[in-house]
Each structure stands twice: as C-alpha cells, then as structure tokens.
Amino acid sequence: xxxxxxxxxxxxxxxxxxxxxxxxxxxxxxxxxxxxxxxxxxxxxxxxxxxxxxxxxxxxxxxxxxxxxxxxxxxxxxxxxxxxxxxxxxxxxxxxxxxxxxxxxxxxxxxxxxxxxxxxxxxxxxxxxxxxxx
Length: 134
Prior knowledge:
Blueprint: H1 4-7, H2 11-32, H3 38-58, H4 76-94, H5 98-119, H6 126-132
Helix pairs in contact: 2-3, 2-5, 3-4, 4-5
C-alpha cells in the first residue's frame, strides 16, 4: 500500500478519502461494541460527522466516468442516500427505535462506504493506485 497517490491528490479528495477510512474503521468498531452505551453514542456521533464529511465532499469530486450524468457519476446517488438517511437514523436512535436505527446505519455503512469504496478500486482511480500500485 502506497499513500503517495492520495497525498498528491487535491485536498478535497484527501479529506473525502481519510474521512471514509476513519468511518470504515469506526463503523466496524460499532458493529462489535456494546450498544446503547456512552462509548457507542460518542463513537456514533463521530461516525455521523465523518459520514457527513464523506458524502458532502464527494460533490466536489467529479468528472471521471460521469457522462451521461453531467459532472457527477451514479456513485453520487450513494452520497445523497447517505445524507438523507443519516438524520433519519439519528432520529430513530433518539426515539429509541432500535431496529430502524440499526437497519439505517447498516444500510449507510454498506452503501455509502463498502459499495462506494469498491468503486474506488477500479483501475485508473486514486485508491486503486494506493492499494494496488500504479
């Protein structure tokens, strides 16, 4: 793994990628940690901020493989999905609707991080170069 391609990328790409990596790691911790505790809520709020950063920053990353969608690609639909679902998931937790909260958070993690992350490994993209080399 070589972070040079990412470190040479524009700052918005770096912000997006490092926030995504942090959210991926913290999300994995959340899945295995005891639920409803102060650490779960604290890490959860950090995760929400990271995911909001990931999704929002994605709208300033565009151009590659975007046609016929203008400057954005179909992957940006996952950013919209995340930005819509995050407050709904937080609201569900606030209302003690545990199942709804869990389903929404797992969906955001799966769609907004795992599936979107797999698309970043396509040859020619920065994360492909980071993981597999040039």
